[in-house]
TrEMBL record:
GO terms for molecular function: 3-oxoacyl-[acyl-carrier-protein] reductase (NADPH) activity. The keyword Oxidoreductase applies. This is 3-oxoacyl-[acyl-carrier protein] reductase. It is an enzyme of class 1 (oxidoreductase). InterPro entries: NAD(P)-bd_dom_sf, SDR, SDR_fam. NCBIfam families: PRK12826.1-2. It comes from the Bacteria. Its EC number is 1.1.1.100. Belongs to the short-chain dehydrogenases/reductases (SDR) family. Pfam families: adh_short_C2. Keywords: Oxidoreductase.
Length: 256
């Protein structure tokens, strides 16, 4: 492999925003390792990517982000295949919803709280911990955490655990800025608004029709709207963007 070949890892790369990001980075010339939790999603993603890229370019695995052993095993596979990644996109996330949306605060269970935080926050921290030492040594790195409008603005539909997990990524980002200071490693948050994916549901759902009314640009977001911003932050052109939260929400939340 070329010494300058970029290597990225995308968590939750098997569907939605993550899969769009994997594709975008592959087109930009990155080698990409990604994982999802469900075998069916990972298989579908692998089949789709194989139509355009040969197996030397990507590594697709089934990994449960809540298992530190599985996460460590995945990064070790990436390192064996190429080297430790210079780019990490912490995208995997869950947003539990009952038939009437997320449980109201008064009925939030400890189980839901722990589950959401372990994927959305602890999972991101574990992946950052896996890559930071190598990034610091090579004096280059791009860490992109996927937050949410729900962690920035008064939540409309998201539950407490999800809101807290996304808001807490700002603290993780600040900590990483300190840990990586002076090394050329950048850490940023991309905060999507309503993006049409499995998590957000179909555009016709009541929640999405209501969201559309609030979005000045006049449409819901597509996974590629977010992937292209992630791609830019991963690029060498974005070296002076550090510690930023970039909203990709069509203007639904515009802290001007
Ligand atoms: P999807 O549900 O389409 O994708 C979520 C991804 O995370 C899947 O690849 C899923 O894997 C993976 N994942 C979930 N749990 C685990 C786990 N325990 N271990 C490993 N992988 C896991 O959602 P989106 O693409 O919509 O969301 C991507 C990110 O964007 C999330 O962090 C979400 O919070 C954020 N976001 C999304 C918004 C939206 O409107 N869509 C709005 C704001 C933020 P698998 O499917 O294989 O189980």
């Amino acid at each position: 492999m070329d010494a300058w070949q970029r290597v990225a890892v995308v968590t939750g790369g098997s569907s939605g925003i993550g899969l769009a990001t994997v594709t975008h980075l592959l087109h930009a010339g990155f080698r990409v390792g990604f994982f999802g939790q469900s075998a069916s999603h990972v298989d579908q993603a692998r089949t789709m990517i194989r139509r355009q890229f040969d197996d030397g370019w990507f590594l697709a695995r089934c990994v449960d982000l809540t298992s530190p052993q599985q996460v460590a095993g995945f990064f070790s596979d990436v390192q064996d295949r190429w080297r430790m990644p210079d780019t990490l996109v912490c995208n995997a996330g869950i947003s539990p919803k009952g038939p009437e949306g997320a449980a109201p605060f008064a009925r939030l269970s400890l189980d839901e709280w722990n589950k959401v935080l372990s994927v959305n926050l602890t999972g991101a921290m574990l992946c950052c911990q896996a890559v930071v030492p190598a990034m610091v040594i090579q004096r280059f790195g791009r860490i992109i955490l996927i937050g949410s409008i729900a962690g920035r603005a008064l939540p409309k539909v998201a539950g407490t655990a999800y809101v807290v997990s996304k808001a807490a990524l700002s603290g993780l980002c600040r900590s990483l800025l300190a840990a990586c200071a002076g090394t050329g490693v950048t850490v940023n948050i991309v905060a999507p608004g309503r993006i049409v994916t499995e998590m957000a549901g179909t555009p016709e759902s009541a929640v999405n029709r209501a969201a559309l009314e609030r979005i000045p640009v006049g449409r819901l977001g597509e996974p590629m709207d977010v992937a292209s911003m992630i791609g830019f932050l991963a690029s060498s052109d974005a070296g002076f963007i550090n510690g930023a939260i970039i909203d990709v929400n069509g203007g639904e939340f515009a802290p001007l």
